[in-house]
Amino acid sequence: MGAHISIPMYQRAVKQRYRLVGLKCSNCGQIIFPPKAGCKSCGALDNFTEVQLSGRGKIYSYTVIAGAGAPPEFSEEAAYRGAYPVVLVELEEGPRIIAQLTEPVPAEIKIGMPVEMVLRQIYTEEDVIRYGYKFKVLEGEK
């Protein structure tokens, strides 16, 4: 059993979860992802426009999660794969986001490796498959 996310809450996050849609602050130009109620740069509470993020970036940091350290919703994956990498990606537009790295995982993950967002299965809850973004290392960069 994984972390419960209600259907309405899940549906509200579809734009960010499937298409990497963020917000751009019209006051200072800061790109906000995932979307928040206010701009952390200038404090504006409204005046945002939606912006489509490219899904491209570089590995800023990473860790490898082993079975015992996996959150409950990823226990099935941890049992199947053993350990799996989770990366902090700095997107071309500036925001940093955390996601799993897809297979095939390079033998050696390096800070600065270029990556690209892909849509993949994240986990299953109550027989419902939850999809979202993961990142893959760009070809020729492994």
Automatic annotation (TrEMBL):
Q: Name one Pfam family in it.
A: OB_ChsH2_C
- Domain ChsH2 C-terminal OB-fold: start-end pairs: 50-120
The ChsH2 rubredoxin-like zinc ribbon domain covers which part of the protein? Answer: 14-44
Where on the tree of life does the source sit, at the highest rank?
Bacteria
Do you know which Gene3D superfamilies this protein is assigned to?
Answer: 6.10.30.10
Spell out the protein name for this chain: Transcriptional regulator
The cross-references to InterPro entries, in alphabetical order and at most eight, read: ChsH2_C, ChsH2_Znr, NA-bd_OB-fold, Thioester_dehydratase-like
Q: What is the lineage of its organism?
A: Bacteria, Bacillati, Bacillota, Clostridia, Thermoanaerobacterales
Q: PANTHER family annotated for this entry?
A: BLR3430 PROTEIN
